[in-house]
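Reply to dn_fold:

You asked what the input looked like. This is it:
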Amino acid sequence: MDNKLQIIEKIREYLHQEPIKKINLLEIADSIGESLSSITSWAPQPEVLAKHLLDSELAALSTILSSESQDSEPAIDSLILTGQEFYENFTRINPAFTICLKDIYPDIYAHFLTKKLHLLKDHIRKNMEKGLASGEYKSTIDTTEIEKKYTRRIEALHTTDQLYAEHFTFDTVFNNIIEEFLWEVATEENWHYFRNRKQLIEVFHFGK
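and this is what came back:
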């Protein structure tokens, strides 16, 4: 990880611990133990820093969703791999780390959220296409409505009330989004397959 990305991660963690009403570059630099110039060399204004923080989150999410390791897997297993990547990179994609920017720079945040939702919507659609083709998913599902439903559910998470709540964790995302999605679309046989796989990944990957 280069120095810029390291600083971005430190700033994200700072914003998560100290939600702010306004971005002060000097105050942030002092708080994370970096020189002001180490930030202003690539983010000379507060709004530029906000864009970099959100772009970093979006890039991390895009990398996870476009992982080649998922392409060769069936629909359910590819979602499980996505869940594992979410777990391992949760601090890099956790929207709670940047939600304060929604009030400070609403236009910048709205643009970011639109791109984020497009990425996730596209991933949901492609996963359903794969699951229908393989027979893992019920042929009767309304793909358009399910795509809209889970995109809206993800969008609804992006509020300070939701993201600052103590119960917002990786488990929240996995259980309320991925698991409920599979419960709705998978055939009974493949739902049981997922439940068995989930027990294994909880033991070996999610630290339970």
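The two ends are 28 Å apart (CA to CA).
Hope that clears it up.
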